[in-house]
């Protein structure tokens, strides 16, 4: 049973013919939730999702607590937020270490990938030894020093394996020339990949201004849950949440290169942002309950914003919905379709390669297939 869906990309044989993009929705696993208790649903969610399981569970508990009108302690909300952010760090790191070399036809660094895989479990253990942060109404008491150490170790790991320089130094770079200079000097897979995009004139391919969603809150729920937009489907990507970063604004209208750079921006900022959550300098994602009693949970997964909604009657779930970012990004007028349609002028091999680059720049964590007509 697929819980993520699949995208089929059809590249026509004749140049000038639009690219076909078909999103095959996932199996409706939410049917399994109907009639279950909220606690049973929370046990099912991580078992059914191999992609972004922490973020999925986070969104689920927020939706269920919203429906039950449960407010958790600030400490619990911060623990959950930090776990989801560490999962994002792991996912972005793995993409840069494993997937980007393969897109160039090179071999990935499996040792570094195995090291990246250990970060989240260690963080989970240090954070939740005496509690279950994603249980309903959880009461978490964190010992912060071990968490700070793991975050610092994660930052050092990223410095060595992804950026080749301190994260704050990389984040201070401005403009394409500075980024190209970094890529030429960095002895990492990420640096080689960005240099490859520059050198092969692919960095600025498929450049489209982003269509943004409003800030998520009770007032903006209709826009977030809608699948239509007059200006094209609004994006639900990691680029969107980093679009105002000074490093990205200096690159102009985002093409493929800017979207990959956005993943690096997020990767470089996450250690500091996790510290800000744990030291109470920023607020974690809240549960929302509307006037009908429906609960909503929206969290930022590595791929983009993820939404769960739930209604509960007599301690049983009566409705449940999940809106993954893929559903929005690969809609008929979504950002992926616009970028892919811009590849019509390239020859067949180049179109296939660029189609793979588009998918990996926008939403690299799901199954897809590229076919040529």
UniProtKB/TrEMBL annotation:
Coiled coil location: none
Protein name as annotated: Ni,Fe-hydrogenase I large subunit
Segments passing through the bilayer: none
Source organism superkingdom: Bacteria
Lineage per the UniProt record: Bacteria, Pseudomonadati, Pseudomonadota, Alphaproteobacteria, Hyphomicrobiales
Organism: Roseibium aggregatum
């Amino acid at each position: 049973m697929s819980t993520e869906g699949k995208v089929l990309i059809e590249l026509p044989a004749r140049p000038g013919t639009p690219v076909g993009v078909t999103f095959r929705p996932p199996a409706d696993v939410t049917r399994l939730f109907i009639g279950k208790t909220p606690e049973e649903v929370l046990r099912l969610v991580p078992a059914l999702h191999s992609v972004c399981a922490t973020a999925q569970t986070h969104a689920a508990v927020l939706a269920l607590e919203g429906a039950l009108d449960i407010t958790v302690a600030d400490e619990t909300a911060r623990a959950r937020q930090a776990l989801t952010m560490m999962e994002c760090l792991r996912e972005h790191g793995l993409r840069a270490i494993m997937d980007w070399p393969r897109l160039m036809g090179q071999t990935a660094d499996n040792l570094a990938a195995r090291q990246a895989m250990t970060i989240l479990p260690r963080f989970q253990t240090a954070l939740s030894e005496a509690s279950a942060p994603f249980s309903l109404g959880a009461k978490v008491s964190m010992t912060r020093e071990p968490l700070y150490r793991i975050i610092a170790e994660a930052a050092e790991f990223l410095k060595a394996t992804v950026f080749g320089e301190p994260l704050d130094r990389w984040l201070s770079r401005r403009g394409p020339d500075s980024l190209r200079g970094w890529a030429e000097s960095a002895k990492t897979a990420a640096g080689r990949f960005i240099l490859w995009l520059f050198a092969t004139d692919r960095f600025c391919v498929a450049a489209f201004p982003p269509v943004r969603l409003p800030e998520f809150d009770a007032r903006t729920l209709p826009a977030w849950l809608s699948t239509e937009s007059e200006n094209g489907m609004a994006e639900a990507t990691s680029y969107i949440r980093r679009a105002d970063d000074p490093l990205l604004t200096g690159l102009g209208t985002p093409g493929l290169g800017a979207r990959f750079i956005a993943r690096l921006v997020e990767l470089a900022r996450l250690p500091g942002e996790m510290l800000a959550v744990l030291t109470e300098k920023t607020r974690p994602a809240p549960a929302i309950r509307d006037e009908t009693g429906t609960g909503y949970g929206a969290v930022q997964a590595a791929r983009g914003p993820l939404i769960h909604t739930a209604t509960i009657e007599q301690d049983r779930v009566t409705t449940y919905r999940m809106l993954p970012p893929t559903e929005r990004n690969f809609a008929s007028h979504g950002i992926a379709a616009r970028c892919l349609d811009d590849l019509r002028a390239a020859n067949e091999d180049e179109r296939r390669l660029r189609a793979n680059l588009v998918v990996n720049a926008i939403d690299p964590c799901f199954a897809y297939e590229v076919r040529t007509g």
